[in-house]
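PT: before anyone asks, these are the final sequences, not the draft ones from last week. 143 residues across everything. Please model them as a single complex and drop the result in this thread when it's through.
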Amino acid sequence: AASADDLASLQRFSVDLIAERLPHYNWVGFYMLDPDDENVLVLGPFHGAATEHVRIPVSEGICGAAVAQGETVIVDDVSADPRYLACSIETKSEIVVPITAAGKIVGEIDIDSHDLSAFGAGDRVFLEECALIFGEFIEEHSR
Ligand code: SME
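LR: through. Structure below.
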């Protein structure tokens, strides 16, 4: 059964729900690895202001770092992190959580906050659980 539409629908629903329920999550979006060039992340469904960063090489940004390191990255103060690629001048902190399917990173969830140090252990646990669910969904729908 074809699935790209199903995944996009789940992602759109999720970014809206997560952003609306969690007021300090000011931008919520997906970046997925380009199947034709796995060194590049491509912007997927998002909730929040439009961004110029539609394609991000995995060698760049907090977004790239999460893929390169293969783990969640939390930045308490983006202005102090040289890797940071600015999307909005209002953004103060960021969390990026990789999504793994069938043992490979396929993309990530990216959240920006207008508050400094907005993301703690609870956010990490919550978003890593979300990432597991998206990864399982992708696995089941790509068979
Ligand atoms: N800040 C990210 C770029 C994506 S925007 O936050 C939507 C980064 O440094 O990779």
